[in-house]
Amino acid sequence: MSSRGCCPRRASRFQELTGACADASDEDARFALAELSSWLAGLAAGELQEAVASPPPRLTAYLANYVAAMTEYACAKNGVAPPAWTRAIAPLAQPVFGSALMSLRLYLLTHTPAPFRRRNIFIDASVGSRV
Questions:
Q1: pTM to 2 decimal places
Q2: Among residues 44, 39, 45, which one has the least CA distance to residue 15?
Q3: pLDDT digits (tens, 9 = 90+) for 51-99
Q4: Contacts of 11 (CB under 8 A, 6+ apart)
Q5: What number is the average pLDDT over the span 38-52?
Q6: Burial of 73 by CB count in 10 Å (0-12 exposed, 13-18 middle, 19+ buried)?
Q7: Residue 16: in which H helix or E strand, if any?
Q8: How far apart are CA 58 and CA 64, in angstroms?
Q9: Residue 131 pLDDT more than 90?
Q10: How many whole angstroms separate alpha carbon 25 and alpha carbon 46?
């Protein structure tokens, strides 16, 4: 199958996965984001660029920043420029930490991947490098 035939399917899958994030409860959104992260990690550079070329559906500010950071992270790992829509998403005004434990905040501040730090989201990506 040619890559031209696959591209609309990948773009459609990106829209489907980000839409699942938007439709999920707070608890289920974590699983939807994990599925999106795994899917993005499995794409080659050209596939990734084509899949994420269009912005995701309307998301909350937090989810929009998380998806944009994941997209930027995946693009950086593949050596490709992130899509323009990621720059149109303003970073969160207040920091969001991946743990409520105050003792972990310094660790999260220093170990969060750069695309997430820029967006005021502080997570631990050390386990399997999944973000």
A1: 0.87
A2: 39
A3: 999 999 889 999 999 999 999 999 999 999 999 999 999 999 999 998 8
A4: 50, 51, 52, 53, 54
A5: 95
A6: buried
A7: helix 3-23
A8: 8
A9: no
A10: 32
CA distance 113 to 44: 20
CA atoms within a 13 Å half-sphere pointing along the CA-CB vector of 43: 30
Which one-letter amino acid corresponds to residue 27?
Answer: E
Instruction: Return the closest-CA partner of residue 124 out of 89, 19, 49, 103.
Output: 103
Reported as half-sphere exposure (CB side, CA atoms, 13 A), residue 79 has a value of 1
pLDDT for position 126: 46
- In this prediction, residues 20-43 reach a mean pLDDT of 89
Residues 18, 124: Cα–Cα separation, whole Å: 21
